[in-house]
Design a protein that fits this description.
Blueprint (H helix, E strand, L loop, with lengths): L1 H27 L3 H11 L2 H5 L1 H17 L3 H18 L1 H15 L14 H42 L6 E2 L7 E2 L4
Antiparallel strand pairs: 1-2
Helix pairs in contact: 1-2, 1-7, 4-5, 4-6, 4-7, 5-6
Bound molecules: 2-acetamido-2-deoxy-beta-D-glucopyranose (NAG).
Length: 181
Protein backbone atom coordinates (compact mmCIF):
# COMPACT_ATOMS: atom_id res chain seq x y z
CA UNK A 1 0.00 0.00 0.00
CA UNK A 2 2.74 2.43 0.92
CA UNK A 3 4.56 1.24 -2.14
CA UNK A 4 1.56 2.06 -4.31
CA UNK A 5 1.29 5.53 -2.80
CA UNK A 6 4.99 6.07 -3.32
CA UNK A 7 4.83 4.93 -6.93
CA UNK A 8 1.97 7.35 -7.55
CA UNK A 9 3.89 10.27 -6.10
CA UNK A 10 7.11 9.31 -7.88
CA UNK A 11 5.27 9.03 -11.17
CA UNK A 12 3.87 12.54 -10.84
CA UNK A 13 7.31 13.93 -10.09
CA UNK A 14 9.18 12.16 -12.88
CA UNK A 15 6.90 13.11 -15.76
CA UNK A 16 6.58 16.66 -14.51
CA UNK A 17 10.35 17.03 -14.34
CA UNK A 18 11.00 15.68 -17.83
CA UNK A 19 8.20 17.80 -19.34
CA UNK A 20 9.56 20.90 -17.66
CA UNK A 21 13.14 20.15 -18.79
CA UNK A 22 11.99 19.70 -22.39
CA UNK A 23 10.34 23.11 -22.52
CA UNK A 24 13.33 24.76 -20.87
CA UNK A 25 15.79 23.06 -23.23
CA UNK A 26 13.81 24.09 -26.30
CA UNK A 27 14.07 27.76 -25.26
CA UNK A 28 17.77 27.39 -24.48
CA UNK A 29 18.30 25.94 -27.94
CA UNK A 30 16.38 28.81 -29.56
CA UNK A 31 13.37 26.66 -30.56
CA UNK A 32 10.81 28.99 -29.05
CA UNK A 33 7.82 27.90 -31.14
CA UNK A 34 8.45 24.29 -30.14
CA UNK A 35 8.67 25.39 -26.48
CA UNK A 36 5.36 27.27 -26.74
CA UNK A 37 3.66 24.19 -28.22
CA UNK A 38 5.08 21.83 -25.58
CA UNK A 39 4.09 24.25 -22.86
CA UNK A 40 0.53 24.43 -24.15
CA UNK A 41 0.37 20.62 -24.32
CA UNK A 42 1.55 20.50 -20.75
CA UNK A 43 -0.82 23.12 -19.40
CA UNK A 44 -2.49 25.75 -21.61
CA UNK A 45 -3.40 27.92 -18.63
CA UNK A 46 0.26 28.82 -17.95
CA UNK A 47 0.56 31.16 -20.94
CA UNK A 48 -3.07 32.28 -20.69
CA UNK A 49 -2.59 33.47 -17.15
CA UNK A 50 0.93 34.93 -17.52
CA UNK A 51 0.78 37.76 -20.10
CA UNK A 52 4.33 38.79 -19.26
CA UNK A 53 5.73 35.31 -19.73
CA UNK A 54 3.82 34.92 -22.99
CA UNK A 55 5.17 38.24 -24.21
CA UNK A 56 8.74 37.28 -23.32
CA UNK A 57 8.36 33.99 -25.21
CA UNK A 58 7.08 35.87 -28.27
CA UNK A 59 9.89 38.42 -27.97
CA UNK A 60 12.42 35.58 -27.76
CA UNK A 61 10.89 34.04 -30.88
CA UNK A 62 11.36 37.35 -32.71
CA UNK A 63 14.97 37.56 -31.51
CA UNK A 64 15.63 34.05 -32.87
CA UNK A 65 14.11 34.94 -36.27
CA UNK A 66 16.39 37.98 -36.45
CA UNK A 67 19.39 35.93 -35.35
CA UNK A 68 19.02 33.49 -38.23
CA UNK A 69 18.36 36.30 -40.72
CA UNK A 70 14.71 35.52 -41.47
CA UNK A 71 14.02 39.23 -41.85
CA UNK A 72 10.69 39.07 -43.68
CA UNK A 73 9.31 36.52 -41.28
CA UNK A 74 10.58 38.59 -38.34
CA UNK A 75 8.88 41.73 -39.62
CA UNK A 76 5.64 39.92 -40.25
CA UNK A 77 5.69 38.28 -36.84
CA UNK A 78 6.46 41.62 -35.14
CA UNK A 79 3.63 43.32 -36.98
CA UNK A 80 0.97 40.67 -36.58
CA UNK A 81 1.70 39.13 -33.20
CA UNK A 82 3.76 41.60 -31.18
CA UNK A 83 2.51 45.05 -32.21
CA UNK A 84 -1.02 44.42 -30.86
CA UNK A 85 0.49 43.47 -27.49
CA UNK A 86 2.48 46.71 -27.46
CA UNK A 87 -0.72 48.67 -27.81
CA UNK A 88 -2.00 47.28 -24.55
CA UNK A 89 1.20 47.70 -22.56
CA UNK A 90 3.84 50.45 -22.57
CA UNK A 91 6.64 48.21 -21.23
CA UNK A 92 5.94 45.64 -23.95
CA UNK A 93 6.01 48.41 -26.56
CA UNK A 94 9.48 49.54 -25.46
CA UNK A 95 10.73 45.96 -25.56
CA UNK A 96 9.33 45.49 -29.07
CA UNK A 97 11.04 48.68 -30.24
CA UNK A 98 14.39 47.56 -28.83
CA UNK A 99 14.05 44.16 -30.49
CA UNK A 100 13.02 45.53 -33.88
CA UNK A 101 15.96 47.97 -33.66
CA UNK A 102 18.21 44.92 -34.13
CA UNK A 103 16.98 44.87 -37.73
CA UNK A 104 18.09 48.43 -38.36
CA UNK A 105 21.72 48.10 -37.33
CA UNK A 106 23.99 46.52 -39.84
CA UNK A 107 26.55 45.78 -37.18
CA UNK A 108 24.40 44.18 -34.52
CA UNK A 109 27.31 43.95 -32.07
CA UNK A 110 27.41 47.74 -31.91
CA UNK A 111 23.67 48.10 -31.64
CA UNK A 112 22.75 49.43 -28.19
CA UNK A 113 20.38 46.48 -27.71
CA UNK A 114 22.79 43.83 -28.96
CA UNK A 115 22.58 42.07 -25.60
CA UNK A 116 19.17 40.76 -26.65
CA UNK A 117 21.08 38.38 -28.93
CA UNK A 118 23.27 37.11 -26.10
CA UNK A 119 22.84 33.55 -24.90
CA UNK A 120 22.16 35.06 -21.49
CA UNK A 121 18.88 36.45 -22.80
CA UNK A 122 17.80 32.98 -23.89
CA UNK A 123 18.72 31.61 -20.50
CA UNK A 124 16.72 34.35 -18.81
CA UNK A 125 13.62 33.48 -20.84
CA UNK A 126 14.21 29.77 -20.20
CA UNK A 127 14.41 30.26 -16.45
CA UNK A 128 11.28 32.42 -16.47
CA UNK A 129 9.29 29.68 -18.19
CA UNK A 130 10.84 27.06 -15.92
CA UNK A 131 9.70 28.96 -12.82
CA UNK A 132 6.17 29.35 -14.19
CA UNK A 133 5.89 25.59 -14.84
CA UNK A 134 7.18 24.79 -11.35
CA UNK A 135 4.55 27.02 -9.77
CA UNK A 136 1.75 25.45 -11.80
CA UNK A 137 2.97 21.92 -11.03
CA UNK A 138 3.09 22.64 -7.32
CA UNK A 139 -0.51 23.76 -7.50
CA UNK A 140 -1.42 20.54 -9.29
CA UNK A 141 0.36 18.48 -6.70
CA UNK A 142 -1.43 20.29 -3.88
CA UNK A 143 -4.70 19.60 -5.64
CA UNK A 144 -3.91 15.87 -5.78
CA UNK A 145 -2.96 15.57 -2.13
CA UNK A 146 -6.49 15.28 -0.68
CA UNK A 147 -7.35 12.34 -2.94
CA UNK A 148 -4.04 10.64 -2.16
CA UNK A 149 -4.76 10.99 1.56
CA UNK A 150 -8.26 9.61 1.09
CA UNK A 151 -6.72 6.65 -0.69
CA UNK A 152 -4.28 6.14 2.18
CA UNK A 153 -7.11 6.07 4.73
CA UNK A 154 -9.24 3.79 2.58
CA UNK A 155 -6.37 1.37 1.98
CA UNK A 156 -5.52 1.21 5.66
CA UNK A 157 -9.17 0.52 6.48
CA UNK A 158 -9.18 -2.35 4.00
CA UNK A 159 -5.92 -3.75 5.37
CA UNK A 160 -7.07 -3.45 8.97
CA UNK A 161 -9.57 -6.20 8.37
CA UNK A 162 -6.84 -8.59 7.29
CA UNK A 163 -3.56 -7.69 8.94
CA UNK A 164 -1.73 -6.01 11.78
CA UNK A 165 0.94 -3.63 10.61
CA UNK A 166 2.48 -0.21 11.38
CA UNK A 167 0.19 2.52 10.09
CA UNK A 168 -0.31 6.24 9.88
CA UNK A 169 -2.95 7.38 12.36
CA UNK A 170 -2.26 11.08 12.34
CA UNK A 171 -2.21 12.75 8.94
CA UNK A 172 -0.51 15.91 10.20
CA UNK A 173 2.50 14.03 11.59
CA UNK A 174 2.32 10.98 9.21
CA UNK A 175 4.35 9.02 11.75
CA UNK A 176 4.17 5.25 11.20
CA UNK A 177 2.89 3.80 14.46
CA UNK A 178 3.35 0.22 15.61
CA UNK A 179 0.08 -1.56 16.15
CA UNK A 180 -1.24 -1.77 19.69
CA UNK A 181 -0.58 -5.29 20.90
C1 LIG B 1 -1.85 14.84 15.33
O1 LIG B 1 -0.58 15.38 15.68
C2 LIG B 1 -0.62 16.79 15.95
C3 LIG B 1 0.81 17.24 16.16
O2 LIG B 1 1.47 16.47 17.12
C4 LIG B 1 -1.52 17.04 17.15
O3 LIG B 1 -1.56 18.41 17.45
C5 LIG B 1 -2.92 16.53 16.86
O4 LIG B 1 -3.74 16.66 18.00
C6 LIG B 1 -2.87 15.06 16.44
N1 LIG B 1 -4.20 14.65 15.97
C7 LIG B 1 -4.79 13.53 16.39
C8 LIG B 1 -6.14 13.23 15.76
O5 LIG B 1 -4.29 12.77 17.20
Amino acid sequence: MRLRLFVLLADIDLTSITDRMEVKRAVQAGNVQEAIEKLNDLNPTILDTNPQLYFHMQQQKLIELIRVGKINEALQFAQEELAPRGEENQVFLEEIEKTVALLVFEDVKNCPYGELLDVSHRLKTASEVNAAILISQNHEKDAKLPSLLKMLIWTQDQLNEKAVYPQINNLSTTVLEDPAV
